[in-house]
Each structure stands twice: as C-alpha cells, then as structure tokens.
Amino acid sequence: MFSKHANRINRFVCASKHYATQSKILVDKPIVEIDGDEMTKLIFDEIKAKLVFPFVEVKRDYYDCSITNRNQTQNQVSRDAAAAILKHNVGVKCSTITPDEERVKEFNLTQMWPSPNGMIRNALNGTQFRESIIFKNVNKYVPGWTKPIIMGRHTFGDQYGGKDVTIKKPSKIFITIKSDDGTEDSVEAFSYKGKGVAMLTFNTEDSIRSFAVSCFRMALERNYPLYFATKSTLLKQYDKLFNEVFLDVYEKDFKTQFEHANLTFELRLIDDMAAQAMKSSGGFLWALKSYDGDVLSDVVGQGFGSMGLMIHSLVSHDGKTVMTEPAHGTVTRHYREHQKGVTTSTNPISSIFAWSRGLQHRAKLDGNAQLENFSKALEKATVGTVEDGLVTKDLAPCVYGKEFKDKFLSTSEFIDEVVKRLK
Question: Where does Mn(2+) bind (predicted)?
Fold first, then answer.
C-alpha cells in the first residue's frame, strides 16, 4: 500500500501543481506533532509526505507517543507532549493504542499504560469537539441530517478519571470525604454479599465552567443553538451541578449574545435529546459529559456515513490552544492485513482534516493568510475527490449502494487523487 518510491514519485506529481511551483509557505512558529500507532501512523506518514510538507515549511516539535515509546519512557513522552502543546498552542496528534491485557502481552509492556489523550485533555482543561463533514453524494444512515451536528464533550474527570475496583468478598464500601479543615464525613454506598465491582467518579466546578464557556463560544462562532443533556432526574446531585453551572454561565456571560444572534440554549434529559436528535435535520451543538459524549459522538459520526468523516479537535477553554486528531483509533484490523502485504482501503479523511485544522489554527494565531488559504484548499481538494465519486471502501456503500463491488480506492490511491486536485 505504501510504496517505498512514493516520495520520489510524489515530487514529480506535485511539480506541476500550483502550490509546488511556488516557494513553500513559511510558518514562523512550530506545531507539536504527536506520532502514534498502526494504520493511522502509516496514513499520517503518507499525508505528511504528499499533502503537507511539499507545500508547507513548518518546524515540528515531535513526540513519539507510540505504545512502544510510551513504555520505554515510562509514559514521560506523553507528559512532555502535553506540556509542548500548552507552550506552542497547536498540536496534531496521531491515533495511539490504549492497551488491554492482550496488548500488554503483545508489546511486552511493563504496565497497562493509559492513553495519552487523558493526560493531554487534563493539561488543556479543554473541550473535545467533533463534527462530521457532509458530502453531496454520500448517503447518510440518518437521511434527515442535512446540517452538521457538533458534539461537545467534556473531557475531565467522570468515568475516565475515576477509580474502579473489584470487590472480592462480602464487604461494605464507603465514600469518605476528608476536608482540609480536618473534618471527615463518610457515606455507606453499598453492602456486598459476594463478589462485585465499584466505581467512583468525580468532577469540579471549575472544569465544568470551562467546559460551558467553550460550548457557548463554539455555538456563537457557528451560529447554532446549544443543548446540554444529562440524566439529572437520576443523578440528582452530580448532574445538578453541571446544569447549575451551565445556567449560571449562560445568564451572566452569554444570554445577551445568544439573544442578539437569535440563538437558544436548553437543558435537556439525555434520552429525550437522543430521540429528538434522530428526528432533527441537525444544525445544533450537543454538549455532553465525558462518557455520554464518547459514545454518542460515535453514533452521530456513523449516522452521517462513517467515523472516517469526522473532524476532531480538543480546544482549551480560552480558545487559544487546539489539538487536532483523527476521530477514530489505530484501525488495527486493517493494519493486520497490511502486515500480511494486503493492500487496504482505510479512509484517511479524518486524518487529513486533523492536519488541515491544525494548520488553520496555527494560521489564525499567526495571522498567516497563505497558510490559511492552503489548509482550506486541502480540505476542498479532499471534499472534491469524494464528490467526484472516488472513495475508500467504507464510503462505497453510501455512494454506490450495496452493489459497490470494486468501486473504491486504496488509501494511497485516494490520497493521490487529492494531490491531483490540490491546486
């Protein structure tokens, strides 16, 4: 799939193109590049070689966050990458392996290292936004969605930051709160008759407030109404704080702006909102807590055609720092085929947009109009390729129906078609 001659061939292909006939676009300040694993790493390498670096001269603060290097550095590389993104304000991250027990054995890991994403999310104290790219010729699994649905996911605490334990014998479990003033309160949570499990989740008012500010700012930027959905009827204290903070931020800081823009904000129950979303035409920002956002953003992404069509970014609460990455994982199944020498058809669009949106944010911060125009041209070329009927295997059924047969390209062929349209 990835020919050793690809870079040499690419030089000749690009030589006739508009961007390549001029000197490269110069970028004064660096971006942070975070490398990853498996199929997505190979796709990133090809995107860099064919679609980015022939046209853009940019310094990269590089961090290898592959599972093997995270193990070798005892995950210090993830901490360093997070600090670098805060320093330079722009990061482009490849998908990485989050190991389970089988992966620990496969890579001979010293422990089950966590995903770098959690560390980076906590460092940025940011919000994860996901949005599907809409193509004229891609039939959606939810046909009524004619406008984008932007998913805003809180990325601090909750299940992903909490603690889970196994109960091995009859026991009682308590939540104990030790205050700084020396007082202590304890609440019995459950009495076990035998084996079981338990989990403690947490969050902070400051983090929820930053999340709310990011969501309101994004809704105004895109001119979309905002819905925040929880299960406050069940989690009467936990979700109550989220709702109270969102209302407070809205009333104090955003109500006037929303009214001037003729936009609305609503608190909704998550089950009701999920049903309403399926009946809608799209065109709104849906804010969710961490686990809810993780699951439902994948549902929405597939509803628009494919997870490979999602734009994914992590935005700090002040909007200054952005990390972009593909909205999918390392695509292990395709990588296993690649290891056997089989040519694969993995959708690279989310990875292409990770690079284009990272470059766009660098351009915005630096006032670099050339870079902004190039990043938009890269996206236009990618969309044009799909709308010309040239797609990878995952999109073929959405374009050609069930009898798509061989009407799809390999990953390299698709990227080469984007190169042809990048004028």
Answer: 271, 294
pTM for this structure?
0.84
Q: How far apart are CA 156 and CA 78, in angstroms?
A: 17
How much is the average pLDDT of 104-111? 95
Q: Tell me the residue range of the domain where 189 lies.
A: 163-200
User: Average pLDDT in the 79-91 region?
Assistant: 96
Give, as one character, the DSSP assignment of residue 180: T
Measured distance CA(281)–CA(140) in Å, rounded? 12
Q: Do 2 and 46 meet the contact criterion of CB atoms below 8 Å apart?
A: yes
Binding annotation: 96-98, 103, 115-121, 130, 153, 271, 279, 294, 329-334, 347
Both 146 and 280 in a single domain?
A: yes
Look at 10-24, 300-314, 357-371 and tell me which has the smallest mean pLDDT. Answer: 10-24
Question: Do 178 and 266 belong to one domain?
Answer: no
Q: Which residue numbers belong to the known binding site for NADP(+)?
A: 96-98, 103, 279, 329-334, 347
The answer to whether residues 181 and 267 belong to one domain is no
The pLDDT of residue 305 is 84
151 and 268 in a single domain? The answer is yes
Which CATH number characterizes residue 283's domain? 3.40.718.10
Return the SS3 of 55. Answer: coil
Residue 409 contacts residue 348 (beta carbons within 8 Å): no
CB 122 within 8 A of CB 158: no
- Tell me the three state secondary structure of residue 38: helix
pLDDT per position as a tens digit, 268-309:
999 999 999 999 999 999 999 998 998 999 999 989 988 888
Are 132 and 305 a contacting pair, CB within 8 Å? yes
- What CA–CA distance (Å, rounded) separates 111 from 99? 9
Interatomic CA distance for residues 390 and 401, integer angstroms: 14
Helices (H) and strands (E) in the chain, counts: 18, 16
Q: Which of 243, 276, 304 is the last residue of a domain?
A: 304
CA distances from 409 to 7, 344, 389 (A): 19, 9, 10
* Encoded tokens for 58: 């940019």
Q: How many domains does the chain have?
A: 3
Domain boundary among 288, 304, 320: 304
What integer pLDDT is reported at residue 49 of this predicted model? Answer: 96
- Give the residue ranges of the annotated binding site for D-threo-isocitrate: 98, 115-121, 130, 153
